[in-house]
Amino acid sequence: MHFRFMPLEPLSTEEMRRIDENCVGLGISKLQLMENAGKAVAERVRQLCKGSRDSSKSIAIICGLGNNGGDGFVAARHLSRDFAVHVVLVGHEKALKTVESRKNWKILEYLDHSVTLCQGASIFGPESPLKTLEGYNLLVDAILGTGLAGPVREPERTAIHLINRARIKTLSVDVPSGYRTETVVDSDYLVTFHGLKAGTRLEGTTVCDIGIPLEAEMYTGPGDLLLHRRAESHKGENGRVLIIGGGPCSGAPTFAAMAAMRSGVDIVTVASPNAEIIAGFSPNLIVRKVGIDRFTTRDVESLIELIAKHDSVVLGPGLGTDAETIRAASALITASNNLTLDADALQGLARSEYESGRIAVTPHLGEFAALTGAVVPSTLQERIEAVKAFSRDWGVVTLLKGRIDIISDGTKHRLNKTGNAAMTVGGTGDALAGLVGALSTRLDKMQAASAAAYLNGRAGDSAYSRFGYSLLATDVIDCIADVLSGRSK
Predict the structure, then answer these.
(1) Pairwise CA distance, residues 210 & 33, whole Å
(2) Which of 93, 262, 370, 413 is an S-S bond match for 480, by CB 3.0 to 4.6 Å?
């Protein structure tokens, strides 16, 4: 089956980084992507210089220290047979930031006949191409890409000023260097890869295919787990999650809470009638006794006070289906601004008022059928459309659990193929809900649900490699840290 899955809008820096890493997960190396990108730049240069009457065509390629510069190095090699190519490295080769860029620079060092290199302090000297730019047929700007954070610094700042002062046609690689800052290359042409980047223009832009497959966008992958925290962060800054559940069952909210803790958040609180039992599972959890043997509407006020102290709420694991408990759940849905709904709490959705986009629901096939009042389609494409329609109509992000998980916000969708048949064991769905809630403290609901599906499934696959069909939900939770640290198989 074939799916059409193209970006509906310009790609953000984070989205493109995710796609690149997912390519690596599919076995496509960053070196291969750089090769394809540099070749695409070279082909565009040839098109632009095709009508030139100058028999000795010369190209200046100004490169930075990151992967944008690496694309420029590759372009220089591809152009070296047809042009006099002069490469300026804005900095020194010892400061090159990636393995891929260093490899392609080393190749250029061997091309001592067809490519001229200039680096370090000499780039602003009298013999530098930067001082004689008007003498070239075209200038290629490969200094700074989408990874730029903060203002442009030296020596890149001076290089950009020299480029903008020169009377020469300029082609930028992926984005104009310094875009979204006060110091930006004023380029005439732009070659961008895979899709237009947010904040760049359409006029004069060529979007090039560099071999990124559909699956790198459609399916979840390691790029969904690019989570960062500040070195100076303090307790609570990296997420406070509240799990509301239990009553008939004490294990379900505990699984959700332990998975949330393993995701890297700082604080997880469990509010449950089963507080004493849950507290005995782990000293890492903060447990609050709410309710006697189940939640009732009398507990809503105290739970709302707890909700206000947390960044994200998971409601439903082990909650039970008592009518008054579902009425209490409906009130809590209305009171929560960042909510993940699972299991029994899903029944309260239809009775609640809430703002679109702030709720993620994680039903299995039976629960989804109950929510929609219809039989779940058997084919994947029909199932995708059903999930999209439900998400759009209800204003939620849906993570439909199955052999292939489907995640949708009503407009776009993602698929997840991680996981295995051993994960039908009880508790793995609760762990997934806990992960969605935890990741919602740092990501939007669509991103959080996608990352959680991938992380939970990868952890399940790692546990399966050790325990086979004997795995337990706690085994899956224990493997979450291995996936996040890159230790899992």
Answers:
(1) 6
(2) 262
* pLDDT tier for residue 54 given thresholds of 50, 70 and 90: low
Domain 13-218 CATH superfamily: YjeF N-terminal domain (3.40.50.10260)
How many other C-beta atoms lie within 10 A of the C-beta of residue 285?
A: 19
Tell how far CA 116 is from the center of its chain.
38
CA-CA distance, 333 to 316, in Å (whole number)? 11
Q: How far apart are CA 280 and CA 485, in angstroms?
A: 28
Q: What is the pLDDT of residues 263-289, one digit of tens each?
A: 999 999 999 999 999 999 989 999 999
Least confident of 10-14, 309-313, 370-374, 412-416: 10-14
The pTM for the full model equals 0.90
At residue 98, what is the residue type?
Answer: T
Q: Which residues have a Cβ under 8 Å from the Cβ of 36 and sit 6 or more positions away?
A: 210, 211
Question: What tens digit of pLDDT does each residue of 457-481 get?
Answer: 999 999 999 999 999 999 999 999 9
Give me the residue label for tokens 């991680």.
418
Question: Residue 452 to residues 134, 443, 483: CA-CA distances in angstroms?
Answer: 53, 11, 12
- The residues of the chain that CATH labels 3.40.1190.20 are 231-485
HSE-CB for 288 with a 13 A CA cutoff: 19
Tens of pLDDT, residues 392-413: 999 999 999 999 999 999 999 9
Give the residue-averaged pLDDT of 327-345: 95
* CATH number of this structure's domain 231-485, picked from the four choices 3.40.50.720, 3.40.1190.20, 3.40.190.150, 3.40.1180.10: 3.40.1190.20
Residues carrying CATH 3.40.50.10260, the chain: 13-218
Which helix H or strand E contains 116, and what residues bound it?
Answer: strand 115-119
* Strand runs labelled E in 401-467: 405-408, 413-416
pLDDT digits (tens, 9 = 90+) for 231-266: 888 888 899 999 999 999 999 999 999 999 999 999
Separation in Å, CA 298 to CA 249, 329, 331, 344, 351: 20, 12, 11, 19, 18
User: What does the buried/exposed string (b/e) look like for 195-217 if buried means 16 or more CB atoms within 10 Å of the residue's CB?
Assistant: bbbbebeeeeebebebbbeebbb
Find out whether the peptide bond into 155 is cis, omega within 30 degrees of 0: yes
